[in-house]
Design a protein that fits this description.
The longest helix has 50 residues, at 4-53. The chain is of the alpha+beta class and 450 residues long. It is 49% helix and 18% strand. It has 9 helices and 12 strands.
Length: 450
């Protein structure tokens, strides 16, 4: 598992070290350049002074006496020490600071660099009317001074690495403490504690994560509350049919005649059918809350409506109900085919079950500028205005049911599915049509064609 603390510490200390080394390298190069230019300037000034003070054309015996401190020195080790050689026009040595160093007379002029006895030298050769002045210095002498100067600059830079590294370690630790507090706050909670975390005490950088976590906790709390409510309602609704089944079994057990047994079995079968339908509706309601049921694709509405209608033709024929379909196609929308099939199935099933014998049911699909619409017009008793919103509540069965068997979940499921598809359902009545009109509108799939 990756550690943010370790990653930050290593990255920052590595960046500090590399940056310090680059700065040190730059300072060393810059110092060497400046010092070389300074010594070249000193060599040029020294040659100019010698040319004015020394009579190069004079005989050798009349030349300036060499410095006795350096007369017998064989090597130049001081950074401010130079090898000075002077020749007259005839090629005789008029002056030299180091007689024991047999540095040859050079043919190059001005500044140049050569190797003498496996050592690199910096040389300035100036020729005048009287003779030649040659000033030389080994580069090693310069490097010794450059290195001694660089050590004074580099040592503080290198010392800052552990000092700043310690500060970085402390700062990173302090910066990550809010994450430790959040982690401990989450660990200390029980499974039922879903209160949102406090955003006011968290850093700005962490607030988006905490905000999303709070949103997740809120959704989880709502889901748990909804599930508890669903479980309580389901338990309440299942209690009645299960108790009725138990009574019907008791009645069947006490039957004495064949006719009584036939009637009891028929009643028991109806009770089992009602309980089975209730369980199926409850399972459908639970399944619609899953993430798979919320996955949507582009679908054509009539391809869902027609198969459902065909499946219900026998049910309608049993009540002598005329079922008509009027649709324009294609009608495209974004949705889940299984969930929309449940909507159409529940609307048509309700229409057939509650419509009067010998009545008519019309199913229509069409499009408006922004929506695709499916309408189901039944032949049932008109729903009172006071109940038009209540019929979509779970387990609600109004007075218009007229004792019809049902769980009170069908329209609640319809409403949930329509909400998942950003749709709208309206219940109305028309003067020219007996019964009720259930109209469902979904956003049209823009820019899609067959």
């Amino acid at each position: 598992m990756k550690s943010i603390r370790r990653y930050l510490l290593l990255s920052l200390i590595l960046a500090l070290s590399v940056g310090t080394l680059l700065v040190a390298l730059f300072l060393y190069k810059k110092s060497a350049q400046e010092i070389n230019e300074l010594y070249d300037s000193n060599m040029k000034a020294l040659a100019a002074v010698i040319s004015t003070q020394l009579d190069i054309s004079a005989p050798k015996n009349s030349s300036i006496v060499p410095d006795h401190n350096h007369a017998h020195q064989q090597a130049i080790v001081e950074e401010e020490e130079f090898l000075i050689q002077v020749w007259n026009k005839t090629g005789e040595v008029v002056y030299t600071t180091h007689p024991l160093i047999k540095f040859p007379r050079q043919t190059n002029r001005e500044f140049f660099t050569i190797y003498y006895e496996q050592q690199k030298w910096r040389v300035l050769a100036l020729e005048s009317e009287q003779g030649l002045i040659q000033v030389a210095q080994p580069q090693e002498a310069r490097h010794l001074y450059i290195w001694s100067l660089a050590k004074g600059l580099l040592l503080p830079l290198l010392l800052q690495i552990p000092l700043i590294g310690l500060f970085i370690w402390f700062a990173v630790g302090r910066s990550l403490k809010p994450l430790d507090r959040i982690s401990k706050a989450i660990q200390s909670r029980s499974a039922s504690s879903l209160e949102p975390l406090d955003l006011d005490v968290t850093p700005i950088e962490v607030q988006p994560v905490i905000s999303e976590l709070n949103n997740l906790l809120t959704r989880l709390e709502n889901a748990i509350a909804l599930q508890r409510h669903f479980t309580a309602n389901a338990a309440h609704e299942l209690r009645t049919p299960l108790a009725a089944l138990q009574l019907q079994i008791d009645v069947l057990a006490r039957c004495k005649t064949e006719q009584e047994r036939i009637d009891a079995v028929s009643t028991l079968q109806k009770g089992i059918a009602r309980a089975s339908m209730l369980v199926a509706q409850l399972l459908t309601l639970a399944r619609l809350g899953s993430e798979n049921a919320k996955q949507q694709t582009v679908i054509e509405l009539n391809q869902i409506v027609k198969p459902v209608l065909e499946d219900h033709l026998d049910q309608a024929a049993a009540k002598n109900i005329d079922v008509g379909f009027y649709g324009t196609e294609p009608l495209y929308l974004n949705g889940n085919a299984e969930a929309l099939g449940i909507v159409v199935r529940n609307l048509i099933d309700n229409a057939i079950r509650y419509s009067a014998v010998g009545s008519k049911i019309d199913v229509m699909t069409y499009a408006t500028d922004a929506s695709v619409v499916i309408e189901v017009q039944d032949g049932a008793e008109r729903i009172p205005e006071a109940e038009k919103q209540k019929i979509f509540e779970r387990f609600y069965r109004g007075a218009h049911s007229n004792g019809m068997s049902g769980s009170g979940l069908g329209l609640a499921i319809v409403k949930d599915v329509i909400a998942q598809h950003q749709g709208i359902i309206k219940v109305s009545s028309r003067k020219d049509f007996p019964g009720n009109v259930f109209a469902v509108s979904f956003p049209i799939c823009v820019g899609y064609s067959a």
